[in-house]
Amino acid sequence: MNSKTTRRRLILAGCAAIVSNILVPNLARANQHKRLARPRSQHHSHTKYRVMLDPGHGGIDSGAIGHKGSMEKHVVLDIAIKVQALLKRHGIDAFMTRSDDTFIPLYDRVQMAHFHQADLLMSIHADGFTSPTAHGASVFALSSRGASSAMAKYLSKSENGSDDIAGNKVIYKDKYLNETIFDLAQTQTIKESLMLGAHIVHHISPIHHMHSNQTEQAAFIVLKSPYIPSILVETSFITNPAEEKLLGTSAFRYKIALAITNGVISYFKNKNSLM
User: Fold this and answer.
1) Which residues lie closer than 8 Å to 42 by C-beta, 6 or more apart?
2) How many CB atoms lie within 10 A of CB 265?
């Protein structure tokens, strides 16, 4: 046996040991949630599409707060309720992670999407930033290799801190984002998420300024499902006085909800045409 073959076998053996050490504990933790997470069934043409809508924050976690006192948790709940009603008119089943002012841990939101066997998960937010001049809508998908911009990094860190506000100290940290498992299981899901994000951007951009004209990526906890395409929509910056005023109107919230709905429908139509 030559030295090159020996070295190759040692590398493969090492990789197998790493995957085993990581995979077994993660699978064991996943089994604790079997009561919530049902296995996903194949989608058939006679079955309605299912969307899990996730209004960000809630309860003790108010989210970002505007200069006039508007709270993100209230604004995004109203937008999500509007999206749910619009999707149902199109024959799409739409579920909500919360339908009132309730705090829900981030990982539980992902588990709800699994339980309902959702075809996609959409988390809805209204940005907060240190500068009141930041403005526009953004759409995010998950990243395995760091944030795609400084703003994406800032926002993911901010949104991921929700559980800490409620004293929930990250029981689930890195449950789905271990790099070895991630690369093997989640690449296709991220591709689908980016495709979904592109449809949402396409429909929001004609009716509202985009902070970024493409789907950004960062390690948002709520987007970490290994098999459900998931995106996070930041509808506007609530910390921008002009956008806080816009978000305070039912007309603008409906306009954003309609754009999101049209993006989802466009995504599903595109998927059907590719089948």
Assistant:
1) none
2) 18
